[in-house]
Amino acid sequence: MQREKLIPLWAFMLPLGAILIWSLNIVVTRYISDYISPVSISFYRWFFAFIILTPFMLPKVLKQRKEIKPNLKKLAVLSAFGMVMYQGIAYTA
Predict the structure, then answer these.
(1) Residue 65 to residue 48: CA distance in whole angstroms
(2) Where are the domains of the chain?
(3) 71 contact partners, CB below 8 Å, separation of at least 6
(4) For residues 25 and 32, what is the distance between their CA atoms, to the nearest angstrom?
(5) Closest CA relative to residue 90, chosen from 33, 36, 11
(6) pLDDT of residue 71
């Protein structure tokens, strides 16, 4: 009989952490929407994410630019509808 593999603790903690961050984001945004417009919140969130992640992702993107270039329009549409529009609508609501 094969021994049962134990699932590491991080396999549970990482998804729960993502859910916690996501839910806190919505709660905080609803409270500060009276002071900062939802469009500004969304813009600054994506701006700071871009600034923080660029040094880590740029080398990989440059290596794979031949695969990315033909799909650039699809990636732009998916990112616009998938994240930017969703969060803009959620913040406005």
Answers:
(1) 23
(2) 10-92
(3) none
(4) 11
(5) 33
(6) 92
